[in-house]
Amino acid sequence: MTASTAQPVDTPLVSVVLPIYNRRRFLPSAFDAIGAQEVRSLEIVVVDDGSTDGSADLVQELAQSCRWPVVFLQQENQGAYGARNTGVRACRGEYISFYDSDDVWLPQHLPTCVAALDHNPDVDWVYAACELVDLESGRLLEPSSFYEAGRPRPFMNLRHDTRGTLRVITDGGVALCQIEHGLFCGLQNSVLRRRVFERLSFEAATRNEAEDQVFAIRAAKAGFRLAYVDDVHVRYHVHAENSSGTSQGMSLAKRRRVYEPLVAGYERLEREVTLSPVEHRALRKRIGHDLFWHLGYNGYWAAGERADALKVFKRALLWWPWDLPQLKTFVLAAVRATIAPASAAHHAGH
Question: pTM, whole model, 2 decimals?
Fold first, then answer.
């Protein structure tokens, strides 16, 4: 690993971790958006995770005109969360945030979240909503990730203290809600205290592209308090290169890349974190659902890989055998998979 730093004398208030892997085209807008954040002091920690597109040279160029000091690290490719772990270890700020190079922070993101943490010492993790925008066309797909068809997401119904525009979640069911519905606290729309990372780190070995979903459960179970602002702070760009599971039209290869490690992350969670009986039941149901529908049905079955689909269906039902639609779909799929080869053999014989 190599490092090139421009260290200020004082410790920065905020560290922004910017992992990159062949994202040269997004870097100018990323530096512009970070530079537009009006906070007292800030450092940018860029982690080049083995890029081959000239990203390193461009970072050095952009750093020359950046208003904030830039720490530049290079490493062999370890995946997005391996790069984030490297960045966190290099951070000196009291607060840590994560910039996804293909998204765009709106100017109020850091000032609002930092002020919330400054004034609420019992809060460890502050986040806001994203708007979803198609990168190529610029078309707005979803005005706020906190709402679905105009209705608030379930996490907004959790018990909370209202402190100005900040809603501090006090509900003991926060981990359960993340398992069942999601808290929508992605890293790109969050700011966290350093103390969170003094106890927790991202699991990077399996390259789980949805590790932030598992990390939020671990943070909640570790007693860290989350709060949110019902405002859009991030423009999330949907495109073919997205690493998250929100991309549209996901290929089978991508589904395997997203959901196999995600399920493995949930499996580790079951072993590593003490869950209540209700949380344990919800986790098993979630694993079964993700395996059956996201990987088995919309992945292997939709791609015509019927034998592999049936294997995944069986795995899913071992985790959660009490879902009637899954059971019906499995039986029908097994019948169709049996009839199709027999029919093909019959026609071949004629």
Answer: 0.90
